[in-house]
Amino acid sequence: MPHSPVVLVAATVLLAACGGPTPPPTGPSPRLPVPVPERLRYEPMTPSLPAIPETAGALDIRVVHPTPTTPRPRVDSAYVYGSVGRGDAALSINGRAVPVAANGAFLAFLPMPADGVWRLTAHAGGGHDTQDLAYAPPPAATGAAATPAGGAPSGVFASPSIGVVTGGSDTLATGSDAIYARPTPTGTYRWFFPRGARLSVVERRGDQYRVQLDPATSAWINTSAVSLDPPGATPPSSGIAVVRPVAGGYEVRMPVLWRPFLVEAGDTSLSVTVYGPRPAGGLLQGALAAGETYVRGFGHQPVEGGVVYSLSLASAPWGYRAWYEEDGDLVLRVRRPPDIDAAQPLRGRRIVVDPGHPPGGATGPTGLTEAEANLAIATRLAEKLRARGAEVHMTRTTMESVELAPRAEMALRLDAELFVSVHNNAFGEGVNPFRNHGTSTYSFHPFSAPLARALDREIAAVTGIPDLGAKFGNFAVIRPTWYPSALTESLFMLIPEQEAALRDPAFLDRLAEAHARGIEAFLRERAEGQR
Predict the structure, then answer these.
(1) Which of 16, 28, 164, 181 fits as disulfide partner to 191, beta carbons 3.0 to 4.6 Å?
(2) What kind and span of H or E run contains 99?
(3) CA 383 to CA 386: how far, in whole Å?
(4) DSSP state string for 320-349
(5) DSSP 71
(6) Up-side HSE of residue 354: CA atoms within 13 Å toward CB?
(7) 90 φ, ψ to 5°?
(8) 465 half-sphere exposure, CB direction, 13 A CA radius
(9) How would you label 307-344 residue by residue, b for 16+ Cβ within 10 Å and e otherwise?
(10) CA nearest 294: which of 321, 273, 315?
């Protein structure tokens, strides 16, 4: 992706001559005299963002990352960033001249020092400041993995055991509290099981069980969420699945005796695969309501190791819930799209806006936290949505910390129709920030992807940085199944001009407006698709 390169100019390091023998070093090498480095002016990579304001404060090196508690990463090069307090300073890190922005911010991507110590020297106004920063030592090796406590020993079981999901929530609508399972021990979440699901457990590996869903499909699930019964098999279910209309959509009730299942949303369909012996007798019955236009039909298809129940829809599902009744029946409730006015698509819509963090979050070179920036954008976004007729709720309106689960629970409790989580980004260790930054948005469920794409188009046009696009993201707040949801990552907190833009009220207003336009565009697309 094209950008204006930032050139790091190497400065000469003068080594003091020492006579006579010296003892071998026992720690980090001592700081040696360093001349005044060449002053380099930081050149923003995105000139379209607001100009970085000039700052003439006291000379004071403040490194935001790494910190003394950061474990030394196993990478060849790493980024160091922070502020020197004023824009006219000359800065060097380990003898290399580093550009300084007008507000004193700096960002460097440098070879990892052999001793793991960054040595910073800044000069300005006849004065200087120095700081040496060492990584924390790597964690001590723990040796052989300990035998897991409780439950079954590791290894493949002589015969399958029945595992009952005892952790998590009793409904799939949360998407975060329902217990997840993966196709491999470290794979992407694929299955979500409500409390009470019965699983055929065939192996333990560390803190995970392998469950056999059908002859060809295994899934891995955390042992802490499952209680084992003695070896045995679940009896086959019997009875007929029933489809019926309910307020706001349709419901499919399946007599499955707590069998595991997989819900999959298509462009114009919603299906649920129930694993295990096929039900005896008839499989599915019901009738569409008179004048029904959204649900076009329903059916079932026996497959190897189970049965697939499906609904054919006029457009993508708006959302769904799934849960077990006390008798083990599985209920899948499909949510009908709200009535949207294409001329005023936001009018009457119930939207939850989530300013991401705290806890956690990134911090910019001059100390702006992501939690502050997210709240500033989200507050403006809420105002704009309300002005266009939406009913808006925010997961937080102050800097008080809110955990992830209560954010999703709030949206479900309010019966939200849309959920948008506002964030700004950071980099992993070893990533070159000058080559990898960009705007991106994320969704988890297929029916949420159009919302993420609409937001990405509008936000990228305002930020002017590379567009990384709308992607799949396994984030807790966008896993709930009851409504379309997306998470935005507009700018990178670490990059000086991007952090500075997030302090600019006029830019924050434009960024919030881009979010509002993206939400509006998604709703208008769905309204036109209903015609």
Answers:
(1) 181
(2) none
(3) 5
(4) EEEEE-TTS-EEEEEEPPP---SSSTTTT-
(5) B
(6) 28
(7) -105, 135
(8) 29
(9) bbbbbebeebbbbbbbbbeeebbbebbbbbbbebeeeb
(10) 315
By C-alpha distance, which of 59, 102, 54, 108 is closest to 84? 59
pTM: 0.89
Across the strands, what pairs with 355? 422
Q: Encoding tokens for residue 364?
A: 């910019």
Q: Where are the beta strands (DSSP E) in 255-405?
A: 261-265, 269-275, 284-286, 295-303, 306-313, 319-324, 330-335, 350-355, 391-394
- Greatest Cα-to-Cα distance within the chain, rounded to the nearest angstrom: 99
**Euclidean distance between CA atoms 483 and 317, whole angstroms:** 9
CA dist list (Å): 402 to 134, 144, 207, 350:
32, 37, 28, 21
Q: pLDDT by residue (tens digit) across 389-405? A: 999 999 999 999 999 99
pLDDT digits (tens, 9 = 90+) for 247-273: 999 999 999 989 999 999 999 999 999
pLDDT in tens, 288-319: 888 898 999 999 988 888 899 999 999 999 99
Query: What residue type is 226 in one-letter code?
Result: V
Locate all alpha helices (DSSP H) within 468-504, ordered by sequence: 496-501
